[in-house]
Design brief:
Elements (H helix, E strand, L loop, with lengths): L16 H10 L6 H7 L5 H15 L4 E3 L2 E3 L7 E9 L5 E5 L12 E3 L3 H5 L11 E8 L8 E10 L4 E8 L5 E6 L7 E4 L10 E7 L10 E9 L6 H8 L8 H8 L10 E2 L6 E4 L8 E7 L9 E8 L10 H9 L3 E2 L4 E2 L4 H7 L7 E11 L5 E12 L2 E4 H8 L11 H22 L10 E4 L5 E5 L5 H23 L6 E3 L5 H12 L12 H11 L5 H11 L4 E3 L23 H13 L9 H5 L1 H31 L6 E10 L2 E6 L4 E6 L8 E4 L4 E4 L4 E4 L3 E10 L4 E6 L4 E2 L2 H15 L12
Parallel strand pairs: 5-7, 13-20, 14-21
Antiparallel strand pairs: 1-2, 3-4, 3-6, 4-5, 6-7, 8-9, 8-11, 9-10, 11-12, 15-16, 16-19, 17-18, 19-20, 22-23, 24-25, 26-27, 26-32, 27-28, 29-30, 30-31, 31-34, 32-33
Helix pairs in contact: 3-12, 5-17, 10-11, 11-15, 12-14, 13-14
Length: 760
């Protein structure tokens, strides 16, 4: 045993599990399989043995995969976005991860290390209380303090000293209280002189004032956002709760307003090519246009040429500019039912970079040649000036193809629309051969009334027009990655790892309970498609789609390419939406620079920072998704708050020890039924079968079951719904009952133990 109490490293020998776990915990930045093998001096067969051991540790839940590195479950990744929330007894800053899975417990504290020498010399970014920072994470050597230390790489958002909450009057006092929207927040006192125009029930933004030694901290109202009883305030709650920058600095607005239309410098004139945009009917910006034609080459009989043109945002948003700094700070646009928080000012996104009909606009275009079997024969990139021939909606284009053209699409049908659909039929042959993951998860859209209240939840039809644009964008993204790899140009890939072995095994066990099987070994996306096809039009269809989705890894951005499992592609990068995603802007700059297409190319500083940029924008993407999801939940809870006691048709969408999650398909929302309210029986949780089963009756509920429920509580600010179960449980399969018996037998063999079961 080494002096520090840790087992010594024996070079050339595969270490035992405990040594591997110690090494990974102490060296999070050296936790890839390659780095571990190098650290232990492993070669040849020993490397294969190490790989098998690490896979087994993943399968046992001892390790989890994050990008190309391994980590202990719940461990922070080497680069993490932190919110600096407090100070320790010595005055040192303490942060916590900005995004954290609460199922893993309390988010770990991280001690921020800032060298006074480096700060004085301006060598390191300086963080302060309330800041959001991007930080390099290290395991702490101080067992008495936080588990991690961190070095700040970049300050993302400076403290604005502003909070959001609901103002409540306090009878008999001159003023009231601010009730926090964040459950971790504290109540604040607001005196009458600091109220402004706030009334009871208003959602307000406040400034925290200095507090005395006793009583609540005082605050002053800065602005009244509106009554919390209106849906218009709900998206603002999510914006504040997730720390999404939504106010554009004046310097950014000024820079956007001062921008001039692009010139023909380094551009090809493609204004006579009838490119068209096909977008949602309510789209305000148009960043992609398409065109297709037969390939005239005799070497490619019945082949097609597909052209995709994307708004040239890199011309206007240059590295290190105010526009660029703000775009990276946001990472992406965030979409709510009542508003959009854009990545770029409207002057750029909705004007200069929007491919408007009949207006000259700069673009980056890729011209792709496909054989009649859907195989790509080649592609070229061009910096162009274009003029959109038409702006169409998905429904408008589809109606024309279906034999119902209108005055606008009629003249476009033969020369433009039919060649596009013919090209899509060819691309689809390639897609069918590639077999990407084909999940059937309908997208629900909340439709608001003019006053901002919820009108209905709509499931848009999935049209061929949608699929056409999607497949052409995918092929353009592939072409971008291939070109940059060929040029040996560093870039940010869009990567999607294969499902973790532990998730594969959990899915395999679940499928076995409904008579389906999942092969072992090196799975591909079509392995899951076979499962989905066998579940089609069965009572298990929704449940199987949900479980397959849960088994998948999360797609992220990375300068290291591991391929895209879901799309079944080896080279993939986001290129087609630079107006709303910073990753695409980086890829545009990389193409401009590596192909010598003029100004606005990637800089050496950006290339060196790609690891940090990828970590940032991946985090910001998760932040946007969480904010959008929370807003939907709050909107639906607000919409249903007046329907307490009503009965609804639902479906079991989640099963836990604590109870059942119930989805209301007509609203696209989830609520909860605590296990204690299900009935008089003891209900035992069976993770493998995703079921709660009555110990005495053998009746229970499984994931995917159709049920009738009654709404008993709605909490709009929390986005929470609570239901009462009206449907009787159904007989559980023999496998589930056998699980209960084996659980009881195992418990009986251990004195003083009993099966884990919730209270009544």
């Amino acid at each position: 045993m080494a002096k520090n109490g840790k087992q010594p490293i024996i070079h050339g020998a595969v270490p035992p599990r405990e040594v591997l776990l110690e090494f990974i915990a102490d060296n999070p930045d050296r936790a890839s399989k390659r780095e571990i093998a190098k650290a232990f001096g492993l070669k040849g067969e020993a490397r294969v043995e190490l790989k098998d051991l690490l896979r087994a540790m993943e399968d046992d839940g001892l390790l989890q995969k994050s990008r190309k590195s391994l980590a202990r479950p719940g461990a922070l990744p080497p680069v993490t976005v932190l919110d600096i929330t407090t100070r320790d007894k010595d005055g040192e800053l303490i942060g916590r991860p900005a995004e954290w899975n609460e199922e893993l417990g309390v988010a770990p504290a991280v001690a921020i290390r800032q060298s006074s020498t480096d700060r004085a010399k301006g060598k390191a970014p300086v963080g302060g209380l309330g800041d959001r920072v991007l930080a390099k994470i290290f395991p702490s050597k101080d067992r008495a303090g936080p588990a991690y230390t961190a070095r700040i790489i970049k300050v993302l958002d400076k403290h604005r000293n502003a909070l959001l909450g609901v103002y409540r009057e306090m009878p008999g006092t001159n003023g009231g209280r601010l009730m926090p929207i964040d459950r971790r927040g504290e109540e604040l006192q607001i005196d009458g002189a600091d109220l402004g125009d706030a009334k009871d029930g208003d959602l307000v933004e406040v400034e925290v004032l200095r507090s005395g030694r006793f009583g609540l901290t005082r605050a002053r109202v800065l602005s009244v956002i509106g009554s919390v009883a209106t849906e218009k305030a709900i998206s603002m709650i999510a914006i504040h709760a997730h720390g999404i920058p939504y106010i554009l600095p004046q310097s950014v607005i000024a820079e956007a307003e001062a921008a001039n239309p692009a010139t023909m410098s380094h551009r090809e004139d493609w204004r006579d090519l009838p490119l068209i945009t096909i977008d949602p009917a309510d789209a305000k910006d148009h960043d992609d246009a398409v065109y297709a034609e037969p390939d005239p080459s005799p070497d490619n009989p019945d082949g097609v040429i597909v052209t995709v043109a994307i708004a040239d945002v890199s011309w206007y948003v240059r590295p290190k500019s105010a526009l660029d700094r703000e775009a990276l700070k946001r990472g992406n646009s965030v979409y709510f039912p009542d508003r959009v928080v854009p990545m770029l000012p409207e002057r750029i996104s909705n004007d200069l970079c929007s491919l408007r009909e009949g207006v000259d606009r700069p673009a980056l275009a890729v011209r792709m040649v496909f054989s009649k079997e859907g195989r790509k024969a080649g592609h070229t990139f061009h910096r162009i000036m274009m003029k959109s021939a038409a702006k169409l909606s998905y429904q408008q284009a589809q109606a024309a193809i279906d034999g119902k053209p209108d005055d606008k699409t009629g003249p476009l049908l033969e020369p433009i629309l039919k060649p596009l659909w013919h090209a899509y039929a060819i691309l689809k042959r390639g897609r069918d051969r590639r077999q990407p993951l084909e999940l059937d998860m309908p997208e629900r859209k909340i439709i608001l009334k003019e006053d901002g209240t919820v009108d209905r939840v709509h499931v848009p039809d999935r049209l061929d027009a949608h699929k056409l644009i999607e497949e052409m964008m995918i092929q353009a993204n592939v072409a971008a990655a291939e070109t940059l790899e060929k040029k040996r140009q560093p870039l940010v890939y869009r990567v999607h790892d294969a499902p973790a072995l532990s998730k594969q095994e959990a899915l395999r066990e679940f499928l076995g309970t409904i008579g389906l099987s999942l092969a072992k070994g090196n799975l591909r996306s079509n392995s899951f498609n076979g499962i989905l096809a066998r579940a089609l039009d069965t009572p298990h269809q929704t449940m199987v789609n949900e479980m397959v989705l849960r088994s998948q890894s999360q797609a992220i951005y990375s300068p290291e390419n591991i391929g895209h499992f879901g799309l079944n592609l080896m080279k993939y990068a986001h290129f087609t939406s630079p107006i709303r995603r910073y990753a695409d802007l980086i890829v545009h700059r990389a193409l401009v620079g590596s192909l010598g297409l003029g100004e606005g190319g990637i800089t050496p500083e950006e290339e060196a920072a790609l690891d940090d940029i990828a970590a940032e924008i991946s985090t910001f993407e998760r932040r946007a998704m969480a904010a959008e999801r929370d807003t939907i939940n709050r909107l639906i809870a607000h919409h249903l708050a007046g329907r307490i006691g009503d009965e609804f048709a639902g479906q079991v969408s989640g099963v836990t020890k604590a109870g059942l999650f119930i989805a209301l398909p007509q609203f696209g929302a989830d609520g909860f039924i605590p296990v204690s309210t299900l009935g008089r029986d003891y209900y035992i949780y069976d993770e493998a079968h995703q079921a709660l089963s009555g110990e005495r009756t053998g009746l229970g509920y499984r994931l995917g079951d159709a049920v009738e429920v009654r709404l008993v509580e709605a909490i709009p600010l929390a986005g929470a719904l609570r239901f009462e179960m009206l449907s009787e449980g159904r007989p559980m399969p023999v496998a589930v009952r056998s699980f209960h018996k084996s659980t009881r037998r195992a418990a009986a063999r251990k004195p003083g133990t009993r099966p884990n079961r919730p209270r009544r």
